[in-house]
Write a structure and sequence with these properties.
Keywords: ATP-binding, Nucleotide-binding. This is IstB transposition helper protein. Residues 99-231 form the AAA+ ATPase domain. One of its GO terms (molecular function) is ATP binding. It comes from Alicyclobacillus sacchari. The chain has 258 residues and is α/β, with parallel strands linked by helices. It folds into two domains: 2-63, no CATH class; 72-246, P-loop containing nucleotide triphosphate hydrolases (Rossmann fold, 3-Layer(aba) Sandwich). The protein is built from twelve helices and five strands. A five-stranded parallel sheet has the order 2-3-4-1-5. Helix 1 (2-13) crosses helix 2, helix 7 (136-148) packs antiparallel against helix 8 and helix 9 runs parallel beside helix 11. The longest helix is centred in the N-terminal third of the chain and has 27 residues, at 37-63.
């Protein structure tokens, strides 16, 4: 018993708290399964590493400012047959991040753009990559304030540092000239240096209207889409599927998102 207490104390001193917490139960399992000393040690340290990984993911997810947690396993691919599941799971390997390629999800509200984007960000965090989430409205407002305060370069680094930046909800509101220019500056600065996942309810053909400037819209699209995969999602809103089934809601015709 004294030796067991000493082992607990040593594990705590080595900051192996998870291993200390499960030491007694893992000793019992090792006895029941007749594990070797190496087998027991591997099992104990494996549990410690797993717990540390979970804590690390939780911390990075919190710092990423994700509004919620989603996974690909939670996504109903059968409800959106326009989505190539195999391709999306290929994105989950994160090869696109290592290649500094962008992902652009286009489609009407409720089809799963943000769910897929957030799930890929969570996968990136799980694999140890830095990531950050921001809606385009909050992004532009933040950069505009920094611009007026004379600290744009410093604030811009916040969005340049992550390996993966998720810009959500592009297109719901038009951008004023300053906001459009600031978004261009960010996309230009990340060009071939860091990956962007962008979601929009507007087809790229409608971005002239969004930016209020055809030349600027073309410049943004040139950098955003040069190295990019575009997923154009067609379908009805997942959030309204039950109301549609009940006949209390009829979906409007889908806009052209090409």
């Amino acid at each position: 018993m004294i030796e067991l207490e000493k082992a607990h104390a040593q594990l705590e001193e080595l900051k192996l708290g998870a291993a200390s917490a499960i030491l007694d139960s893992r000793l019992q399992v090792a006895t029941e399964k007749n594990l070797t000393y190496v087998g027991f040690l591997t099992d104990l340290l494996g549990a410690e590493l797993e717990e540390r990984h979970k804590r690390n993911v939780e911390t990075k997810a919190r710092l990423s400012k994700l509004p919620y947690r989603k996974t690909l396993e939670e996504f109903d691919f059968s409800f959106q047959p326009s989505i190539d599941e195999k391709l999306v799971r290929e994105f989950a390997t994160l090869a696109f991040v290592h290649q500094t390629t962008n992902l652009v999800f286009l489609g009407p509200p409720g089809v799963g753009k943000s769910h897929l984007a957030v799930a890929l960000v969570m996968e990136a965090i799980s694999q140890g990559l830095s990531a950050y989430f921001v809606t385009v409205t909050n992004l532009v407002n933040d950069l505009r304030k920094a611009y007026h305060d004379g600290r744009l370069d410093t604030r811009m680094r916040k969005y340049l540092h992550p390996k993966l930046l998720l810009i959500d909800e592009v297109g719901y509101l038009p951008l004023d000239p300053i906001g459009a220019n600031l978004l261009f500056q960010l996309i230009n600065a990340r060009y071939e240096r860091g990956s962007i996942i962008l979601t929009s309810n507007k087809g790229v053909g409608e971005w002239d209207e969004l930016f209020g400037d055809a030349v600027l819209a073309t410049a943004v699209l040139d950098r955003l889409l040069h190295h990019a995969h575009i997923l154009n999602i067609r379908g009805q809103s997942y959030r309204l599927k039950d109301k549609m089934k009940a006949g209390v809601y009829t979906a409007p015709a889908e806009p052209n998102a090409s």
